[in-house]
Write a structure and sequence with these properties.
By secondary structure, the chain is α+β, with helices and mostly antiparallel strands. Helices cover 39% and strands 31% of the residues. A hairpin with a 2-residue loop joins strand 9 and strand 10 (116-121). It is elongated, with a radius of gyration of 39 Å.
């Protein structure tokens, strides 16, 4: 009886262990690349927990999406799956490699080993997925002067939100670093701006900027200069907010003057336009220059406004060009019927001097009349 009782217990335990092993039989999936970086190769792992038969001798199928489009079967890719490659790692593991991983690859994947299935949704996770911007996806602008420097960066696309720091020497400048980030599709667009003003000259200078994107740290800027003369040669003209406001006002005045001159001389402009058909090509040079100067001035004014907003280094050049073209447009528009450029400029100055003298003469007459009127009133009061 003891032997039979022992055999019964052994049979019971064997059955329980077999059921446990059988219940754990299945297929398990996971992202093998950690982190999964967009633009690089990303691997998906499929592990089979079953009998001792090697996974290489079993039917292996990979599908994608809600419709379960075929990607690969037994190591052979479908006609639309050129970027996929399967590798058998061991008797229990197979790997699917996606080359040049992109946002289009974010989908649901299925792995089948015989009739066992596992599902793996590839969804953005800031702890598992990263997009590192490179080349033209990173825009930088570093402006240096004797009294400080300014830094501007723009990164798009990037994922997850970058954590950036700008160092002046070994000092992090977190307090004055302004960062704005917005979601665009799957990824982010991040802009960083920093303006540092020192009390005196900052020479020698060492500045660098780094950003941590997920688990990866990238360098955006490295600058070091120990020669002060190099800094003086590389000085870029930077304007503060008050100077930008003044420049903006003057640019608006230039634009208003050109529009005012066009409205004031619209009759002469129309007459000149009607007479162009009677002129030869050479005699049309002055009206043509008037058109070019007018539209050039207006274009430079608009461009100057844009440069003020962007804080671009070519701001002063655009403004000076707008100022020059505005003066030329005012001179050319004031005497549109004149054929000769020299004669037109001379007539413009003559008209300006005449108007100026008339204004002075009118002011003198007004002053004399006021004085005479005052003297008359005084004499009247005395006679009374």
């Amino acid at each position: 009886m003891n032997v039979e009782y022992f055999l019964l217990i052994c049979l019971t335990f064997t059955t329980i262990i077999w059921k446990v092993i059988y219940s754990e039989e299945g297929v398990f999936c996971g992202v093998k690349s950690n982190p999964a970086v967009f633009g690089k190769n990303v691997s998906i792992s499929c592990i089979y927990n079953g009998s001792n038969t090697c996974i290489e001798n079993r039917t292996r199928t990979w599908t994608k999406g809600q419709n379960k489009d075929l990607i690969m079967m037994d190591g052979h890719p479908s006609l639309t799956a050129e970027r996929y490659k399967e590798t058998v790692i061991s008797c229990s593991e197979v790997e699917l490699e996606i080359s040049n991983f992109s946002s289009d690859d974010l989908d649901n994947y299925q792995c089948y080993i015989d009739f066992k299935e596992c599902k793996l949704p590839l969804q953005l996770d800031p702890y598992k997925y990263e997009y590192h911007p490179y080349g033209e996806e990173i825009k930088t602008n570093f402006t240096l002067s004797n009294g400080g420097f300014s830094v501007f960066f723009e990164m798009f696309p990037v994922y997850p939100i970058p954590m950036c720091t700008v160092f002046y020497g070994s000092i992090p400048m977190k307090d004055i670093l302004k960062q704005t980030t917005r979601r665009v599709g799957h990824f982010y667009q991040s802009k960083l701006n920093l303006e540092f003003k020192a009390l005196g000259k900052i020479c020698p200078i060492t500045a660098n900027a780094t950003c941590k994107i997920g688990q990866t740290e990238i360098s955006l800027l490295k600058f070091e200069s120990k020669n002060c003369s190099d800094i003086e040669e590389k000085v870029s003209l930077t304007l503060n907010s008050i100077e930008k406001t003044i420049l903006c006002i003057f640019t608006g005045i230039c634009l208003a003057l050109v529009l005012w001159s066009m409205c004031r001389n619209r009759t002469l402009i129309q007459e000149t336009y009607n007479q162009l058909s009677n002129r030869n090509v050479w005699d049309s040079r002055r009206p043509l220059l008037a058109v070019l100067a007018t539209f050039g001035s207006m274009s430079c004014d608009i461009l100057t406004f844009t440069k003020i907003v962007e804080d671009n280094q070519t701001l002063i050049i655009c403004f000076c060009l707008a100022l020059l073209l505005t003066f030329a447009a005012l001179v050319l528009l004031s005497n549109t019927p004149t054929i000769s450029i020299r004669e037109g400029v001379r007539k413009s100055f003559v008209r300006f001097i005449d108007k100026f003298e008339n204004c002075i003469y009118r002011e003198q007459n007004t002053t004399a009349y006021a004085s005479a009127n005052k003297a008359g009133n005084t004499a009247g009061k005395q006679s009374v």
